[in-house]
């Protein structure tokens, strides 16, 4: 694999911002604490899936059991991280976001720390900071140890809260001297829906899968994710904050919504989508509870926070990580019968877009710029959830693999130009 492909997206971001060759802005137009960077995750980047004491994660098991493309080698970052850091330096990155593989650091999910895994992350972090690149570390990116899934069901069981907190403690203790930005859970809403409602991401559970219950499990898992985040955040504040001075955040997958029509029904459908995609996670983190509309729809299938849990979750996130790739046109669908294979989560929302006479989410064509949608996302979070600090942790434009396009990547440059401009406008 051409190593330079790893950072092509950020290369264009940096060029468009620094030289002003496309846009009417420069790096100096952004606040000094606004960071431009790139990122990846352990499974997508490290490879070395069974080397030096690492044991399987649920992601390893998921792809191997289905004979899918896998990350056994991935980008081989485990062996080539120094080359990657040099590419970051050449690109001019100010920050780099990556995740730690729980099953590499603590192979069984609890207990003994793997010394070789520990040393790898120490070496990588030192390589970053020695070149002036700020590490942003994600603790969980879809890949808890398979041992915990087999032993007690992973995120379906509250036992994982204690194990996750102990894992976070190791990370804070060992890496916190150089890491000031921690994200506990990566895009918690999509991990939950994909892994326990649709079954199309690890651990692959759903009502029509070999095992799972789409009507209850997504809500149980999300509840435990929030409690685990709050527990790890509380630990950091009590044990490490004063000496390390870092911050602990939580990330969500954010979609820019627009109603299919100006009807009242579609406007109400938009609000339900916002409750289920934004409020599901940000409601408890900001106000200590789920949105009222969501509680009314899901009913007893939605777990309830105790008073103590509510107080622990509320205010536990120092920042919100936003992962934004998509925009969707939404229409009301409450009166429509469920179609075969419809998942309970989207049936609960009762709002989904029409495509070819079927109720599905409709992703807008490239001709409709995403710049409006990231502005909407940022403004909605600001107005609805207390104006928290926000990091846009992922974005991008999917393109077909084309060697000629890689040499002249005008569509993506134009996309990022509009995107960065919209973010700057929102910041101002």
TrEMBL record:
Catalytic activity: a thioglucoside + H2O = a sugar + a thiol; Hydrolysis of terminal, non-reducing beta-D-glucosyl residues with release of beta-D-glucose
EC primary class: hydrolase
A GO term from the CC aspect: vacuole
Recorded GO MF terms: beta-glucosidase activity; metal ion binding; thioglucosidase activity
Gene3D superfamilies hit by this protein: Glycosidases
A biological process term (GO) from this entry: carbohydrate metabolic process
Annotated Pfam families: Glyco_hydro_1
InterPro entries: GH, GH_1_N_CS, Glyco_hydro_1
Record has Membrane as a keyword: no
Localization, UniProt: Vacuole
Keywords from the named record: Disulfide bond, Glycoprotein, Glycosidase, Hydrolase, Metal-binding, Signal, Vacuole, Zinc
Signal peptide, first to last residue: 1-23
Family listed: Belongs to the glycosyl hydrolase 1 family.
Protein name: Sinigrinase
Organism, scientific name: Brassica campestris (Field mustard)
